[in-house]
Write a structure and sequence with these properties.
about 10% strand; eight-stranded mixed beta sheet; alpha/beta
Length: about 425
């Protein structure tokens, strides 16, 4: 039985490694093609679509003024932009700070609205209320801590215009603006860079698969209205709406040059709460869409579901099992040095155990390789410090994902059993 469990873990890890190699190959090809393509900033944007920019904000007095000012200064025709800031059930000075900004002489002429909302539904509810007054051809969403670079919106709409009938949404890249504060933030930064420079680009290059992030994206206004808006019961409304878009035959395109900075959690407690919410939400989205594996939807949707299901269920289970077996075996071997009569409860064939060690070594190598390929593709990120952190983070930061996933899955199961309503957690901001 022990050997069978170990063989399951080894095979699963090898499949995960193969998946990673395929995605890395796609990312390398994407980056190579992108580096050869010229960067185009048009002089005339009269033919560009109108956009409604929504900024949902719940008690965001610390960051909201800076975010809105970045949005007001975007390189996009002012007459084509409608801005709606939603002060969602705020008990602080969020709305007040935005009103002060709106009264500045430079911004008085802008199509700029402040919605003070007292409804339910969290971020999704706020977006749905703002959707009712949206006039743009496209909806653009920025979180309250976002700092979009000057041409971010231009690059998003530019990508959308390449295939307007096929691209239902377009997303850019998000970067950690407080990435050098501490070890946790440096690890979060490596994760962000790797996910966006390797996973997003690889999946888009090979399969034309994309997923909307929580911020820095655009979606067709008509499409989001046809869907019925954002799911107010979803913890990860971005992933949930992504599958809705895909099931309508629309693509979610990647515009890697559309960049925005965001604030990441600066403490472990805040980070754990944020990521547990994300994991729990993604588990729910997987369960809500798993039936598509047995329907006649596009193969891209099936592949997308399998990708999420493998990451959050199959590979996660295999790594947890192999970790338990490995640690238990090591502990018993150490104990046996002092008490030879103590025998490990797990007995493995030598060959199978060797295969596990090889699989782990290769998985670690691929992990570090992905990060460093991503860093090389991101200007200013490839350095000795980040290389060392990449090597160390596998044994520290990445192991948090196991704890977070287990806690999130347990919480979801409890919700289902006792009928508990899931509570949305707002990420704490820092000065």
């Amino acid at each position: 039985m022990s050997d069978m469990i170990l063989v399951f873990s080894v095979i699963s890890i090898w499949i995960a490694v193969l998946e990673a190699i395929v995605i890395v190959a796609g990312a390398i090809r994407f980056i190579y093609k992108q580096n050869k393509a010229p960067l185009v900033i048009p002089d005339n944007m009269d033919h560009f679509p109108t956009v409604t920019i929504m900024v949902p904000a719940h008690n965001e007095e610390i960051v909201i003024a800076s975010t809105v000012e970045h949005i007001l200064q975007l390189n996009y025709p002012e007459d084509k932009v409608q801005i709606i800031v939603i002060a969602d059930n705020c008990s602080d000075r969020t709305a007040h700070n935005v009103k002060i900004l709106k009264e500045k002489r430079a911004y008085r002429h802008r199509n700029f609205h402040i919605m003070e909302r007292t409804g339910t539904g969290g971020k999704s509810g706020a977006l749905n209320d703002a959707l009712k007054m949206a006039t743009g051809d496209w909806i653009c969403v920025y979180d309250a801590d976002a700092a979009p670079e000057k041409n971010a919106l231009l690059f998003l709409t530019q990508k959308a215009m390449e295939k307007p009938d096929l691209y239902g949404a377009v997303f850019g890249r998000n970067k950690a603006r407080n990435r050098n504060q501490n070890f946790l933030l440096k690890c979060i930064n490596l994760e962000l860079v790797t996910v966006q420079r390797i996973h997003h680009t690889g999946l888009w290059e090979l399969f034309k698969i994309g997923t909307i992030p929580g911020t820095n994206f655009i979606v067709k206004t008509a499409l989001i209205r046809d869907i019925g808006g954002w799911d107010e019961d979803a913890l990860t409304e971005d992933t949930a709406i992504s599958f809705e878009i895909l099931t309508r035959g629309q693509f979610i395109a990647l515009a890697p040059q559309a960049e925005a900075y965001q604030q990441e959690p600066e403490s472990l407690a805040v980070y754990m709460k944020q990521r547990e919410r994300w994991s729990k939400g993604n588990y729910q989205v997987i369960l809500d869409n798993i039936h598509h594996l047995f329907t006649s939807v596009s193969w891209r949707i099936k592949l997308h579901i399998l990708y999420y299901a493998a990451s959050y269920f199959w590979f996660m289970l295999a790594i947890i099992i192999s970790d338990i077996l490995f640690v238990t075996n090591i502990v018993y071997q150490i104990i046996s040095l002092f008490n030879p009569s103590v025998i490990s409860p797990f007995f493995f064939s030598d060959d199978v155990y060797v295969y596990l060690m090889i699989a782990w070594a290769l998985m670690y190598y691929i992990y570090v390789l992905q990060i460093n390929l991503a860093l090389v593709a991101d200007i200013g990120q490839s350095n000795v410090s980040n290389f060392v952190i990449a090597c160390v983070s596998y044994f520290t930061y990445s192991q948090l994902f196991l704890i977070i996933s287990v806690r999130a899955f347990y919480s979801l199961c409890v919700d289902k059993i006792v009928g508990r309503k899931t509570k949305w957690y707002k990420t704490q901001r820092f000065n």
